[in-house]
Amino acid sequence: MKIFLTLFAIVSAIHIAAIVFQKEWARRVSKVLIIPFLLAAFIAGGGFVSGGLFTILALIFGWIGDILLIKKKKKNVFKLGILSFLLGHLCYIAAFLEILGFFSVSGGMVNAPTIFLFTPVLIIGGIFVFGLIKPFREMRIVIIIYMLIIMSLCLWGFEVFFFNPNVAGALVFLGCLLFIISDTLLAYYAFRKLKLFPAVMVMLTYIMAQTEIVLGILWI
After folding, report:
1. pTM for the complete prediction?
2. Local confidence pLDDT in tens for the 220 residues of the chain
3. DSSP letter assigned to residue 166
């Protein structure tokens, strides 16, 4: 597992450096290699734990999304990339539900007061983010659906943390929050010219989100 995490860290660092120094070929090649090394680390570390299969699927969809968004200027390709990330988020939600026991005979664990209090915050946050992004008319439905999914991801990530109040649970929830930041930046600059600092932050928060959720699930 350590060797794959090391390679993952190296490739991630190369990718961020390629963005900073505007080396397009290095950016494209490194981007394709980031998730496979993280996936290999997850499997090597004993990834067939509760939620493991859905985590593997989430990483695969994330990898496909990474490849598709290399050419994000093409609208159809961009939509497919967004769809792939959306499916990845749904797989992570399924992983969280499995960790909480929803796929077992005894039924899942859920803290109703937490959901009752947390849901309005997510709704308000989703409305704020949608207003910030200001997507084109043809993309509004897609972005609304995407925001609902990412907010649901954060909600169930918090439930995992609530029932696992340790480092692993905190990593899962923090990873979900970072996904909100990364996806918001990605959606915002999908309709505008992407500058250097936001480009770095999109990938940095994305890499950290994937890493923290994967390690959190592995250590729960």
Report:
1. 0.91
2. 899 999 999 999 999 999 999 999 999 999 999 999 999 999 999 888 889 999 999 999 999 999 998 876 667 787 888 899 999 999 999 999 999 999 877 777 888 887 777 777 777 777 766 666 666 676 677 777 888 899 899 999 999 999 999 999 999 999 999 999 998 888 777 666 767 777 899 999 999 999 999 999 999 8
3. S
Distance CA 117, CA 175 (A): 20
Tally the C-alpha atoms within 13 A of residue 215's C-alpha that lie toward its C-beta.
19
Q: Kindly tell me the burial class for residue 112, based on how many C-beta atoms sit within 10 Å of its own C-beta (0-12, 13-18, 19 or more).
A: exposed
Residue with tokens 């998730």: 35
Q: Which residues contact 106 (CB under 8 A, 6 or more apart)?
A: none
Contact 88, 209 (CB under 8 A): no
Nearest to 64 by CA among 96, 31, 90, 95: 31
Rounded CA separation 29/199 (Å): 16
